[in-house]
Specification:
heterodimer; A: alpha/beta; 6-stranded mixed β-sheet; 4-stranded antiparallel β-sheet; about 35% helix; globular; B: mainly alpha; about 0% strand; binds adenosine-5'-triphosphate; binds magnesium ion
Chain lengths: ~250, ~260
């Protein structure tokens, strides 16, 4: 199994608060890895580490074999163009329309013609259930629509790897199903890698090749869907069952 | 001991700040030198900036020119040198008033707007989103604003020069009965074209200060909406102080011997 990325003994702190302590995690190439964990556990931070938006205080982050903690900004920029990132809160550019938002990576990073870009943008928006909103501005859309537009911007350039931060949180069951399917389809189409942070266990069981559970600054469980579901670890079981009683303090 | 600690920390902070601004400026200049400029965004910014600041620049320079003329004209006439008023007003306008007034107004208007806009892009993760697409916030956001200011502030300064001189001329005519011909002749004689150019050079420096401080403060924003407010006021205060300091230094260097 080739690795797409590896977090190696990573520590992250915000001020005095320790978010990650000696955390190590392998991300398998061509697979969908889902990251689960409590709110505030550091799941979004893991995605930021994987494309160099956040540097660990100590430890190393390898992507495709290269240590990105020591990479020059210029190389990091080239790397990021090959990684899509769907932000938890979408992070659409509010000075641009939805269409311009989705088109931006194509306009800036490719030599595609205007017509091709337009076509691809509208196809991608269609695929997330957002037809005919190109001209609208992000402030005119509902939360769920904005979320899907952020999803579209992350995948429009067909990146070899995509990081999804809670792609289906706050969406209705039908759209959740559509996006889960889309994540799987995109991975198959490009034989690409996906890392998905999610609380939506149903979707995770459908799409995940591997699941990693983050708890108190470390990965406490890692395995296939079956392995995790049958895990004897009481932390994992409490989390999957959503139970109030168990080792996880509330 | 505590005092020394505070002073020490303050000094380190100031150096870190200056270093951060210098690094951002270096970054921006590299993109400009490589002609990696977003022309459309630059023009949009220049237009916006002109519209934002035009009326305030006109009003402040008009009234300042008028009050300057009012106070000097009465004095001058009573000493029998009314024919020097035009020179005095024009001289001050071209060297100091025009560049300073327009810079301070634009710092309050556009510098604040830049810090607020970039700051809110930080807290809504739009800056990180740019980076995640492999795009440089410096190239996409800072360079267009820097260029727009460097082009527009000197234009606003020329306008401020003219408006304050015209305002001064009107007041001198009404209150001290100094004729337009005498005012203009005196103004022409007192202000060599060189002085106007030096005044415009000042405003280019001020433009760089406003753009870089606004951008840097915006990009350094931490901590939600409250952080955006802090960044905005911080940008205005810092750039106005720097404008006054640089104005003195530049006047000393440019006009010191004349
Ligand atoms: N910029 C920051 N400054 C200070 N603390 C931060 C910052 N970003 C994150 N944190 C802290 O780091 C921890 C991990 O944050 P992160 O966003 O990675 O959590 P998460 O697992 O994605 O949570 P959620 O499921 O709620 O999105 C949190 O406790 C948060 O308080
Ligand atoms: Mg998160």
């Amino acid at each position: 199994m080739a690795l797409w990325a590896r977090l190696d003994d990573v520590c992250v702190r915000y001020g005095p608060k320790i978010v990650m302590q000696n955390l190590s995690l392998d991300i398998v190439e061509g697979a969908i890895t889902c990251i689960i964990g409590l709110s505030g556990a550091g799941k979004s931070t893991i995605l930021r580490l994987l494309n160099g938006l956040k540097k660990p205080d100590t430890g190393r982050v390898f992507v495709r074999g290269k240590d990105i903690t020591e990479m020059r900004e210029r190389d990091l920029i080239d790397l990021r163009r090959t990684i899509g990132f769907a932000f938890q809160f979408s992070a659409l550019f509010d000075s641009l329309t939805i269409g311009e938002n989705v088109a931006l990576p194509l306009r800036e990073n490719t030599k595609m013609h205007d017509g091709e870009i337009r076509k691809l943008v509208s196809e991608t928006l269609d695929s997330v259930g957002l037809a005919h909103v190109e001209e609208r501005s992000p402030s005119e859309l509902s939360g769920g629509m904005v979320k899907r537009a952020g999803f579209a911007r992350a995948v429009v350039s067909n990146p070899a790897a995509v990081l999804y931060d809670e792609p289906t949180t706050g969406l209705d069951p039908i759209i959740t199903h559509v996006l889960t399917d889309l994540i799987v389809k995109l991975r198959e189409k490009l034989n690409g890698t996906a890392v998905v942070v999610s609380h939506d266990l149903e979707s995770i069981y459908i799409m995940a090749d591997y699941i990693a559970m983050l708890f108190e600054g470390a990965i406490v469980a890692y395995g296939t869907v079956d392995e995790i579901r049958r895990s004897p670890n009481p932390i994992v079981q409490q989390f999957l069952q959503g139970s109030e009683v168990g080792p996880i303090p509330i | 001991m505590k005092v020394f600690e505070e002073v020490g920390r303050g000094t380190i902070g100031a150096f870190a700040y200056a270093g951060g601004v210098a690094e951002l400026l270096g970054d921006a200049l590299r993109f400009i030198a490589g002609l990696r400029i977003r022309v459309r965004e630059t023009l949009d910014q220049a237009f916006l900036l002109g519209v934002q600041s035009l009326s305030i620049v006109i009003l402040t320079s008009l009234f300042t020119g008028m009050v300057f003329s009012l106070e000097s004209a009465n004095q001058a006439v009573s000493y029998g040198v009314g024919n020097l008023v035009g020179g005095l007003v024009a001289f001050t306008a071209a060297r100091e008033l025009g560049p300073m007034l327009s810079a301070v107004v634009v710092a309050g208007r556009t510098g604040a707007a830049i810090a607020a806009e970039l700051g809110s892009m930080v807290v809504t993760e739009q800056i990180e989103a740019l980076q995640s697409l492999g795009l440089s916030p410096t190239r996409m956001l800072v360079v267009p604003r820097l260029l727009a200011l460097v082009v527009m502030l000197p234009l606003l300064t020329v306008l401020a020069d003219i408006v304050s001189i015209v305002g001064g001329m009107w007041v001198a005519g009404v209150y001290a009965h100094i004729s337009q011909e005498s005012f203009i002749t005196s103004a022409r004689a007192a202000v060599p074209f060189d002085d106007v150019l030096k005044g415009l050079f000042k405003s280019v420096v001020f433009a760089v200060i406003i753009a870089m401080i606004g951008s840097y403060q915006g990009l350094q924003t931490r901590g939600g909406a409250a952080g955006v407010g802090k960044a905005t006021t911080g940008a205005v205060v810092t750039s106005i102080i720097l404008i006054f300091m640089f104005n003195f230094a530049l006047s000393y260097v440019l006009f010191g011997s004349s």
